[in-house]
Amino acid sequence: MEQHSIAVLKQLFEADKLDETYINELKSDERKGVQKLIERYERKKINAIRLEENFIRMSQYEKRLYDNGYQYIAGIDEAGRGPLAGPVVAAAVILPRNFKLLGLNDSKQLKEETRDEYFTIIKDEAVSYGISIIDNQTIDQVNIYEATKLAMYDAVNQLDPEPDHVLIDAVALDQLSCTSESIEKGDQESISVAAASILAKVTRDGIMKDLHKAYPAYGFASNMGYGTKQHTDMLAERGITPYHRKSFAPVQSVVRQVASLDSFGQ
Fold first, then answer.
1. CATH of domain 60-202
2. pTM of the predicted model, to two decimals?
3. Cβ atoms < 10 Å from Cβ of 7
4. Cα–Cα distance for residue pair 145/147, rounded to 1 Å
5. How far is CA 112 from its chain centroid?
6. Is the CB of residue 74 less than 8 Å from the CB of residue 163?
7. Which residues, 6 or more positions from 234, have their beta carbon under 8 angstroms from its beta carbon?
8. pLDDT in single tens digits along all 266 residues of the chain
9. Contact (Cβ atoms closer than 8 angstroms) between residue 37 and residue 8
């Protein structure tokens, strides 16, 4: 066996230009650097198998529906039900039948860089997708659950072609024109719902980063409007912004305190 330098072997491993026979022969190479390369390669191979198996598992809802004659299967998910500020965003997406994106999962389990990469891939390869943004004023008017459903209906209504079945993350939508099913932790169980979760979260995160530029003290770029200590401390110190949800208890408390002080001042 020709003995390559460790630097050359590293390049060959990274370029995936070594076959299993040669790699097995390398296992007898006593150089520590070679053994580390082999260990890294084995971990990468195991991880690739795991990702493949998880993608197959998360494709079971779609496979069953395709086998039953459905053609356009949409996944729906939302981002931003819990924060104290900003909109709630829902996305709906129909993936092509042959879609494959290893590593696709619940958006919250992915690194930001990966989410951004997948966001572009999903939009580019989707048969159709829709994204809906419901602002904090509407959330205060109808409550967050109803606002979430409004966003979901709007997102699915943007799809063209229309879906003939919809998979939804943990919400029941009873006014759809097609069949549907609600899946608990759907963004971890269905590739269509996971794809929708990425479209929704990346869109909403972008909105919150823009709001951060106008209101940097609240830390929106990092907390995305959730009630972190920094955020609630700033609420107490500076009051609310036009983007806070007044119907949410921590914000409502600040609004009442301000109203009480104004009343006392009179």
1. 3.30.420.10
2. 0.88
3. 9
4. 5
5. 9
6. yes
7. 217, 218, 219
8. 567 888 888 888 888 888 888 888 888 888 889 899 988 888 888 999 999 999 999 999 999 999 999 999 999 999 999 999 999 999 999 999 999 999 999 999 999 999 999 999 999 999 999 999 999 999 999 999 999 999 999 999 999 999 999 999 999 999 999 999 999 999 999 999 999 999 999 999 999 999 999 999 999 999 999 999 999 999 999 999 999 999 999 999 898 876 554 444 44
9. no
CA nearest neighbour of 150 among 165, 162, 164, 137: 137
Give start-end residues of each CATH 3.30.420.10 domain in the chain.
60-202
Q: Is 95 helix (H, G, I), strand (E, B) or coil?
A: coil
Is 170:244 a contact under the CB 8 Å cutoff?
Answer: no
Based on DSSP, count helices (H) and strands (E) in the chain, helices before strands: 11, 5
Total residues found in the chain within this entry: 266
Per the listing, tokens 């921590």 go with 250
